[in-house]
Amino acid sequence: MDRIKETGLARVAMPGEFTMRAFLNKKMSLIEAEAVGALIGARSFLGLDMTLNTLSGELSSEIIEIRNDLMDVLTDIEASFVTENEVEGKDIKHHLKKIMDRLDKLVASSDEGKSMYDGVVTTIAGLPNAGKSSLFNAILGYPRAIVHEVEGTTRDLISEHVLIKGMDFIFYDTAGIKEVAQGPEKVGIEKTMEILGKADLVLYVVDATKGISDEEMKWLKQGKRTVLVINKIDLSDCKAPALEGLKVVRVSAKYNRGIETLIDMITSDIPDNMPRVFMERHANLLKRTIASIRSGINAIDAGLTLDAVTIDIRDALSSLNELTGDGIDIDILEDIFSKFCVGK
Fold first, then answer.
1. 178 phi, psi to nearest 5 deg
2. Residues in the chain with pLDDT < 70?
3. Is residue 171 domain-shared with residue 243, that is, in the same domain?
4. What was the pLDDT predicted at 322?
5. 167 and 239 share a domain?
């Protein structure tokens, strides 16, 4: 390699340089080019399927189709300024509403798509000694966390990536939640509360011999989704409480009973149709496009002239062009491809 570089005829490739060249030479859209980087970074089969779907050009085609529809609306409005063909505000609003509905459908599952690609952040929480670490170990299939009858054994976050049914989960074993704590245990509980707020899924563990207390009810609403796990059913036949909208499963982490049922429950929400938008840049630009179109619709409702609406439509088109890479600033391009591996 050194001898080749000494000739002055070659150099080491920059991060993502080959994909960037493919984009600049119009071999692929920027959406597809970014999918190459996402494909390399995919950690699960679902992530792989999502990136391959984007790489196929399906999302790019729909975005270009939406952009062309929006351009037609803009052309009709501007043509009415110089010809006798008048356009009605209600007709423009109808077309804009149809376009916005298509964009809404794309964005609706973007948060879920990001979780499916990055990994579902799953926090195992509950009071001290409820059996959180035992459940953590049972799901992993090996003794990753220390299990002891003394309260407060877990004082820090322990995390592991687990591939379940082709989907990537990031499990966190946490310190037991209690109102009064001090020292390392208090720090551990603070970390627990922090990761609870970020969790896509919370497995809230309750000791079957004690049941769930009224004070614990507030912890059940911390994550985006919560499954109530009644643990230690080998010691008690405690019935699960009837809580509206909350999934409940009874297990014995110690004897591995009910774990398969729990696994089926947490993977049951995987949609049959993969979300097509899962990259943050794509989602942000689509949301910005929707905001611009909504602003145009509001302008029509407010009785403003159509030339005011064209400003919002142009803003929407600008966002879509940035998404596909048409006329995109070179600094943005370099930032996108700098995250790639060398070459690629």
1. -155, 155
2. 143-156, 178-190, 240-242, 270-272, 342-343
3. yes
4. 93
5. yes
